[in-house]
Amino acid sequence: MDALADLIGWFNAERTTVVVAALALAGIVYSAQSASAARRQARSAKDQAERAREQVALSKQQVDVMLRQVSQAEAVEAAAQQARRESLQPNVLVDIAPGLNDPGVFVLIISNIGASIARNVRIKALDQMVRSDGLKLHELTVFTEPISVMPPGQTRQFFYDVGFQPFKGKSPLRCRFEVDCEGPFGPVETAHYDIDLTPYQGGWAAPTTLHSVVEQMKKAVSSLNSIGKAIHQEHDAARTSFECKIVQSTRMTDDFTTWLPAGEVLRPSNAASDEAAP
Fold this sequence. Notes:
Elements: H1 2-10, H2 13-88, E1 92-98, E2 105-112, E3 118-125, H3 141-144, E4 147-150, E5 155-162, E6 174-183, E7 186-187, E8 191-196, H4 209-253, H5 262-276
Antiparallel strand pairs: 1-2, 2-5, 3-4, 3-6, 6-7, 6-8
């Protein structure tokens, strides 16, 4: 108790003020240290949050890249499937061109250049086409009724007009066609064909139909003449060979009596019989 009393007695006003000031200073120092630590912790937390945001942004970018790659892969696969499907689908083509057998005329060509059978082929002539003889080509059955089946490689040709007639204003120079059909994978995408004959205008150099017929007849006659000459040569060769064989066989069997008259040939045999009679 005496020690406690001495300690209490030691604290006077001045000493108490000093002690309180020291304690306050220690509190201030502790508060400053605490504030500094808190600031460091706050900066560290801020840095961590910033790094977390960067990681989130980077992860988002990676996810976006992966999504784009997946989307591109899906697009490539879809394009590949579409290409494979289209490669197996029919492809009906409509064209107007000079005829192969007679380039002096234009023919309307419908062909399936695809890899499969075209069914229910529907062709529409979107423009009126009146031939030089007055026939309305756009009213032909091929444009009003569907074609049930067109195998791959099949071609159908229709007389369009004489080669020089379209350029006299007798028939249209530009035509548009619309084609629909069905393949192994269902309906084929509608195809449109714009035919333009104006590039032939002013430069048409095909022979006329009559000239073409005459030239074809000349070629046929020339071919027949060649065949006739070949047959004649073979006949002459066979005849010569046959005659040579006859001559050779005759020479092998000839004797001195071959070329004598019949009476003289028989006379020696009669004389021999007379000599033998006595």
